[in-house]
């Protein structure tokens, strides 16, 4: 399964914003079961990007 165009654009925006605030991207993973992208930034920031491009904080 490949990420959608919406997910790709949102992930670029989120990763750019996170690194602007000096948050390292520790993990960037596509969950092949759900199609969601999971981003772990620093020690505590967890973000999930759904297939339609909407994202939420998990912590």
Helix content: 25-40%
Low-confidence stretches: none
> What fraction of residues sit in β-strands?
25-35%
Shape: globular
Rounded Rg: 11 Å
Q: Tell me, rounded to a whole number, the average pLDDT.
A: 96
Report on the structure:
- By secondary structure, the protein is of the alpha+beta class.
- Strands 1-2-3-4 form a four-stranded antiparallel sheet, covered by helices on one side.
- The longest helix is centred in the N-terminal third of the chain and has 16 residues.
Question: What is the topological layout?
Answer:
Blueprint: H1 5-20, E1 25-30, E2 37-41, E3 45-49, E4 55-57
Annotation keywords:
globular; 59 residues; 32% strand; alpha+beta; single chain
Give a quick rundown of the structure.
With 59 residues, the protein is an alpha+beta fold. The chain is built from 1 helix and 4 strands.
């Amino acid at each position: 399964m490949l990420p959608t165009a919406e997910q790709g654009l949102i992930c670029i925006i989120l990763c750019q914003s996170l690194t602007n605030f000096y948050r390292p991207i520790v993990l960037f993973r596509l969950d092949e079961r759900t199609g969601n992208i999971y981003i772990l930034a620093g020690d505590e920031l967890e973000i999930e990007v759904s297939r339609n491009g909407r994202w939420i904080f998990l912590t």
